[in-house]
Specification:
This protein is mainly beta and about 425 residues long. It has three domains: about 100 residues, Sandwich (Immunoglobulin-like), CATH 2.60.40; about 100 residues, Immunoglobulin-like, CATH 2.60.40; about 160 residues, Jelly Rolls. Helix content is about 10%, strand content about 45%. Strands 2-9-8-4-6 form a five-stranded mixed β-sheet, with no helix packed on it. Strands 22, 24, 27, 28 and 30 form a five-stranded antiparallel β-sheet that branches.
């Protein structure tokens, strides 16, 4: 064999981050000058230095090769034994290479780090945190995790509370902090606490965190609830008004219809009894309009234009409806103008409230419904002075304010008018 090698120390112990050395005696046993190379095999090769890396030896000449082991202080190099082999190769006789084996024992060390996320949690009943624990050492080791607050206002639940950390790994511990007492309203309350990590072979670690407890009833509820309640009340009032209010008819019959019906009712009109035979007057009654609750009765004559006319305005006003009195109108049809000489107000149901007679926006007279009932016949005759003149397209209106307890008010007015020359 062209070369021989002797490892003086086969077992070497080294601490992470430190250095340890051993020597190998290499001898050239051949009769020629040869060059020898040195190479360390195994996982220790990444952190082993060789000096020299190769040597030229005369026959029977020896050289001492130094191996320096420098394992890093990291979890990449685990604690324990790491076997290695030193290969001495000959350039002149490759088949005559030799190998020397040994063992490097790396001492254990413990180091860990921790971080909590979030540092401050917010909630009404509980705050949730996560602690990430990193094992920066080169051996597995357990760690004990606990949490406490200085005022004893919180309780804690940790899962897991005693994890075993493997080298180069991170473990996650869930922490749930719950207050011992709750409160209904007010500002948030900050409750600080401390998370402590303890390991037998390392210094303890303390992490500051906090739970910000909020009230059971959120602050926005105190202004949002009245707003929603007011909006709901407004919608109810609008819906009630729309359901109770009935549309008012403002349409009057055409003159042709009045002329066609006047002949059939001439004998029953009160005005016809006082007219001369040559110009009889009569009143024609139009069918009631159910949507408006009013009966309009324009006047007509069998021949020519009548000198007097009667028409009726009926009402059906619901009690306790806001927005002022309810209006029930008659629109004067196209034709001549008339002067209203008398109005017969009737209150057959003995309703309570008030009724106004209006000519467009002008109030002609105001009466209480109880005043209408004073007469034995349950009616009241009103003669305005001076008589208002109504032209085609103008309105004659009953404005009714009903104060009944339940049923609607149903007054009516029979208007008598004379032709204005």
């Amino acid at each position: 064999m062209a070369v021989s090698a002797t490892l003086r120390t086969t077992e070497v112990e080294v601490a992470p981050g430190a250095a340890a050395r051993c020597h190998v005696l290499v001898r050239n046993n051949s009769a020629v000058v040869d060059q020898f190379g040195f190479d360390v095999r195994g996982d220790v090769g990444d952190w082993t230095r060789i000096k020299p890396e190769h040597a030229n030896l005369m026959p029977q000449q020896e050289v001492s090769v130094e191996l320096t082991f420098v394992p890093p202080r990291s979890p990449d190099v685990l604690a324990g034994e790491h076997p290695f082999a030193l290969m001495v190769s000959s350039r002149e006789d490759p088949a005559g290479s030799v190998v020397q084996e040994g063992t490097v024992t790396v001492s254990p060390f413990t180091e860990h780090d921790a971080e909590i996320v979030p540092v401050t949690s917010t909630g009404r009943r509980a705050g949730r945190h996560t602690v990430a624990v990193d094992n920066l050492g080169n051996q597995p080791h357990p760690v004990e995790i606990s949490a406490a607050d200085p005022d004893a206002k919180l309780t804690f639940r940790l899962r897991p509370a005693n994890p075993v950390l493997e080298p180069g790994t991170a473990n996650f511990v869930r922490i749930v902090a719950r207050p011992r007492k709750y409160f209904w309203k007010g500002k948030n309350r900050r409750l600080p606490f401390t998370v402590r990590l303890h390991s037998p072979d390392a210094d303890p670690i303390e992490i500051a965190a906090a739970f910000e407890q909020g009230p059971l009833i959120p602050r926005r509820f105190f202004w949002l609830f009245p707003l929603l309640f007011a909006l709901l009340l407004l919608l109810v009032l609008i819906a009630t008004t729309l359901l109770r209010q009935r549309p008012v008819s403002v349409a009057g019959p055409s003159p042709s219809a009045a002329s066609a019906t006047s002949a059939t009712s001439a004998s029953s009109s009160p005005a016809s009894t006082s007219s001369p035979p040559s110009t009889p007057s009569s009143s024609a009654s139009a069918p009631p309009t159910s949507a408006a609750g009013a009966n309009d009765q324009p006047a007509g004559s069998g021949s020519g234009t009548s000198t007097s006319a009667t028409f009726t305005v009926g009402a059906e006003a619901y009690p306790n409806v806001g927005g002022g009195p309810q209006l029930f109108s008659y629109v004067v049809p196209p034709g001549p103008s008339y002067a209203i000489t008398s109005v017969v107000l009737r209150n057959p149901a003995a309703d309570t409230g008030q009724v106004q007679i209006r000519h467009d926006d002008t109030v002609v007279g105001t009466f209480s419904l109880a005043q209408v009932n004073q007469d034995a016949r349950g009616q009241l005759t009103f003669r305005p002075q001076p008589p208002p003149v109504v032209a085609p397209g103008e309105r004659v209106t009953l404005a009714v304010s009903c104060t009944n307890t339940r049923d609607p008010c149903t007054p009516s007015g029979v208007f008598t008018a004379t032709l204005v020359p």
